[in-house]
From TrEMBL:
Keyword Transmembrane helix part of the UniProt annotation: yes
The name this protein goes by in its record: NAD-dependent epimerase/dehydratase domain-containing protein
Transmembrane regions: 20-42
InterPro entries the record matches: Epimerase_deHydtase, Lipid_A_modif_metabolic_enz, NAD(P)-bd_dom_sf
Signal sequence extent: none
Top-rank taxon: Eukaryota
Length: 492
């Protein structure tokens, strides 16, 4: 064989070897991919089987199967990303945390874990913020950059229980109005921004209307502008109060659904006169919605607006004198709990004649998760997020809570007292009559329906309030009784 033929022969042998090796590599990768996909679905299949399988003796096998397969799936899907991801800071020490902490992810059995994300939550230390944080950390492998102007007491309880969260959560105590550049830096690092920061307690709308308008409109603008500039998905929290009062409350036919059912696309927004200061909150929220919408059409902002309908759950608001101002007036859930735990009558504003639909915060946060995970379906929309099955008159809510409190604690049933809105909140108080959300849009776009009944949500919430506060309130009462008895003792 001549030299060129020899060279050609050797080259073609090498080429063939290389091709063979590449083919082998691709086959191995294909098998791994197949295994990854299979193991990803096995947990859900086994869960399904767990619920459906008629042979009860085989049920116990389903859960171990789910847990055994998910580490394989999570390792194959998340391993490289986790190794490459930069270290996060510990919330309390601000020291880098061990990357090994992330190994725990491999034990998560939820096959719904999707693309890893970084979410910036503004107002993370409040009621909804604390639940969004908890849900993200427990159920996803995402990172959360949180900020709030108050100390992280509500979330510290959660972090305290599971220090391992620190690997995926940063907290910055800051006022977004005073530190806009810091806010911008956080937004720059996130894929998506959830803005919850606002004054949102009706007693404040009357006491500090200027702050209420600024907080809900003016102070939200930096966040919006940074999302426009940095091209981030903004999920902004508005309120169901933007609808104002229903058409039926103005005398239109109550039998016609369109006169009371609140629909994102068709219902007009009707509020009282300017002197009825209660509506300053709803007007500010409505204007900020319109501004966000305008940035969507003019500047391409990717946005989603959330209109919550009285979300309730643990960690909502505060108990006056315990972890809030002595003379504070929290929203109705915490107000009624305060009265029940103090053994005082529950105050019914204007007889408690109006209605509210209450939604369990855990269900509601699931809707927000869907918005974050499916920007293609959530962008450009304002969504009602509430539970139309949990519609109740406030006087009936008081009754329900009185009975439930007595059932849980074994104490005698509480009482109610009626008071005018002006006397309770001050001049300018008006009220929404009925707030029932249309579920059409949220069901169509996000396939979301809230499963939890009012009774279940209320019992779970009340038990947490009782566990957290009843001892503290009893101690306060004892000290007050002792202080009151002291002068009498001295006189003797
Ligand atoms: P919340 O008061 O518990 O939480 C709001 C958080 O924002 C607080 O922790 C507060 O400290 C923070 N914040 C306010 N201004 C800030 C600032 N300038 N800088 C940094 N942090 C700031 O209220 P929530 O119930 O969690 O409500 C969150 C959002 O949802 C609000 O925008 C509210 O209007 C809206 N909303 C809530 C409900 C509900 O059912 N809870 C209903 C309708 C609308
Ligand atoms: C609130 C706030 O405006 C916002 O946080 C939010 O936008 C909205 O609810 C919401 O959660 O969707 P509102 O429902 O009026 O508005 O607030 P609550 O303080 O929870 O009051 C509910 C009803 O109970 C009102 O009619 C109020 O007058 C009444 N109430 C409240 C009482 O009868 N007694 C109380 O002690 C407190």
């Amino acid at each position: 064989m001549d030299v060129p033929s020899l060279i050609w022969c050797s080259c073609s042998t090498h080429l063939l070897c290389l091709l063979f090796f590449l083919r082998l590599l691709f086959s191995v990768l294909a098998v791994l991919h197949l295994l990854g996909s299979l193991s990803r679905w096995l947990p859900s299949l086994s869960k399904l089987w767990f619920h459906r399988c008629p042979c009860k003796r085989l049920w116990p096998l389903a859960v171990p199967l789910a847990y055994a397969t998910s580490p394989v799936s999570n390792f194959i899907r998340l391993g490289p990303r986790l190794v490459l991801r930069p270290l996060r800071l510990d919330v309390s020490t601000h020291e880098p945390t061990s990357p090994h902490a992330r190994l725990r992810l491999f034990a998560c059995a939820d096959p719904a874990m999707s693309e890893s994300k970084c979410v910036c939550i503004v107002g993370v230390a409040g009621f909804i913020g604390s639940h969004m944080l908890e849900k993200i950390i427990r159920e996803r492998d995402w990172t959360v950059l949180g900020c709030d102007m108050v100390a992280p007491t509500k979330i510290q309880e959660l972090l305290g229980a599971e220090k391992k969260w620190a690997a995926r959560f940063e907290f910055h105590q800051m006022n977004i109005v005073e530190e806009p550049q810091k806010l911008k830096a956080l937004i720059a690092r996130a894929d998506c921004v959830v803005n919850l920061a606002a004054i949102c307690n009706p007693s404040e709308y009357i006491k500090q209307p200027v702050n209420t308008i600024n907080s809900n409109f003016t102070d939200a603008q930096d966040c919006i502008n940074y999302c426009v500039e940095l091209k981030k998905h903004l999920i902004h929290f508005s309120t169901c109060e933007v609808y104002g009062r229903t058409l039926s409350s103005y005398g239109l036919d109550a039998k016609d659904e369109k006169n009371w059912l609140l629909d994102e696309e068709t219902t007009p927004m009707i509020m009282g006169p300017v002197s009825a200061q209660r509506w300053c909150y709803a007007c500010a929220k409505q204007l900020v919605e319109r501004l966000i919408f305008a940035h969507g059409t003019e500047n391409g902002l990717k946005f989603t607006i959330v209109r919550p309908y009285n979300w309730i759950g643990p960690r909502m608001d505060y108990i006056p004198g315990v972890d809030g101002k002595d003379d504070g007036q929290p929203r109705v859930l915490a107000s009624f709990m305060t009265a029940l735990m103090k053994g005082e009558p529950l105050v019914l504003v204007n007889g408690g004649e109006v209605f509210r639909t209450f939604c369990f915060v855990e269900d509601a946060c699931d809707a927000v998760m869907r918005m974050i995970e499916h920007p293609d379906k959530s962008s450009g929309h304002a969504f009602n997020v509430g539970n139309p099955n949990n519609n109740i008159q406030i006087s009936k809510l008081a009754e329900l809570m009185i009975n439930m409190y007595s059932k849980i604690t074994g104490k005698p049933k509480g009482t109610t007292v009626s008071i005018s809105g002006e006397e309770y909140y001050g001049k300018g108080y008006e009220d929404s009559d009925l707030r029932i959300p249309s579920m059409k849009l949220v069901k169509k776009q996000l396939d979301w329906t809230p499963p939890t009944s009012l009774e279940t949500a209320m019992e779970a919430t009340m038990r947490v309030f009782i566990e957290k506060y009843s001892d503290k309130l009893a101690n306060l009462k004892r000290s007050a009784d002792e202080a009151a008895a002291a002068p009498a003792k001295k006189a003797k």
